[in-house]
Amino acid sequence: MRLLPLAAALGLIPALLSFPSAGQPGAQTGQRAECTLQAGPAQAVVRVIDAETLLLDDNREVRLIGALAPRSPDMRSGARPWPPEQQTIEVLRDLVLGRSVELAYGGRRRDRYGRLLAHLFLDRAGERVWVQGQLLSSGHARAYGLPGSFACMRELLAHERAGREAQAGLWSNAAYAVRPAWRTRALMRMRNTYQIVEGRVLRVASSKSTTYLNFGRDWRRDFTAGVAAGTARAHAQWAKTLASLEGRRVEVRGWIEYRNGPYIRIEHPSQIAILEAEPRPSEPAPGAPTVSSDPKEMPPRQKQERPAQKKPGALDL
C-alpha cells in the first residue's frame, strides 16, 4: 500500500507544521509525531448523510475521522435543527458532494458500525484540499481521535487552532466554550459529551492501573483526568513526563464521564496541551473545600469571584 506523507500531499505552508511543540504529542520529550497516511482509492461522494458521514458511489459510508462535527445538545424528539450542525453539513455539501475524493487511512479502518474511518483529499481549482483540515480551520469541527485512530493529531490540532484564534464557526458559540476545571457541577451536566477543559493540575497521583491528574483537592468530586497503564506503556517516554504537569495549567480534551466526579479518560498524548512552560504553586479553585479526614470539620464554601474564562486559542502547538 502506498504511503502518503500528509504534508507532501497537501503542499502545506511550512509554518503551519512548525508551531512550538509545547502542546502536542511528544512535546515534553522533544519528539515529533510523524504524520504518514496509507493512500486508498478515489471515490465519488453521492450523499452527505450528516455533518461527519458521507455515502460513496460504491455504497460504502465513510466517517471523517479526526474532525468531530457539532451535534445538537437537545436530543429530544421534535427538537429543531441545530444551526452549527446544519452549517457544517452545508460546508461539506459545497466541498465534496458530487466530487471525486481520495481516501487515506491512519490506524483503524472501520468503526463498530462498519463505516470507513478515513481522511479525505480532493482537488479544487488546482488546489489540494484536506477535507478534515478545511472543516477544522473554518471552525466547523473540533480535532479528536479514537483508540487506534489518532493519526496526524499534530496537523489536526494546528488546523483547529486557526479556527479558534479566528473565533470562527462553533468557536463563537457558548456551547463549545473551553470549560473551567473548577466548575464541576457544570461538567457533570455535560456527561457523555466531548469537551475541552482547562485548569491547573493540583496533584499527579499514580496507582497500578492509572495515573491521575487531579485538578482539585477533593478527588471524590473534583475534575480528574486519567491515563491508564496501557496508554502509558504505549507512550512510555511521554508518560514519564506526566509528573511534571503538577502545578501547570493545561487543557484536557475528551468525553466527560462520571468517576468520583467529572472525569476524562486520556487515551493519547494529544488530549493534553500544556499552557504554561513552568509550573506554579497550585491554589485551591474558587469555592473548593479543604479535605479533612473528619467530614464534620469540612469548612463551609466561601463565595468568590469566578475567574475570567480564558479566550479560546491558547493551545500552543
Number of helices: 7
Fraction of residues in β-strands? 25-35%
CATH C-level class of the largest domain is: Mainly Beta
- Under the CATH scheme, the architecture of the largest domain is Beta Barrel
Give the overall pLDDT as a whole number. 83
Fold-level CATH name of the largest domain: OB fold (Dihydrolipoamide Acetyltransferase, E2P)
Order of helices and strands: EHEEEEHEEEHEHEHEEEEHHEEE
Major pleated sheet: 8 strands, mixed
List keywords for this structure.
single chain; 317 residues; alpha+beta; OB fold (Dihydrolipoamide Acetyltransferase, E2P); 8-stranded mixed β-sheet; 5-stranded mixed barrel; 7 helices; 17 strands; 17% helix; 28% strand
How are the SSEs ordered, and which strands pair?
Layout: E1 3-5, H1 6-10, E2 36-50, E3 53-56, E4 61-64, E5 67-68, H2 83-96, E6 100-105, E7 116-124, E8 127-130, H3 131-137, E9 142-143, H4 153-165, E10 179-180, H5 184-188, E11 194-200, E12 203-206, E13 210-214, E14 224-228, H6 229-234, H7 236-239, E15 249-258, E16 262-266, E17 272-274
Parallel strand pairs: 4-7, 10-11, 14-16
Antiparallel strand pairs: 1-2, 2-3, 2-6, 3-4, 5-9, 6-7, 7-8, 11-15, 12-13, 13-14, 15-16, 15-17
Helix pairs in contact: 3-4
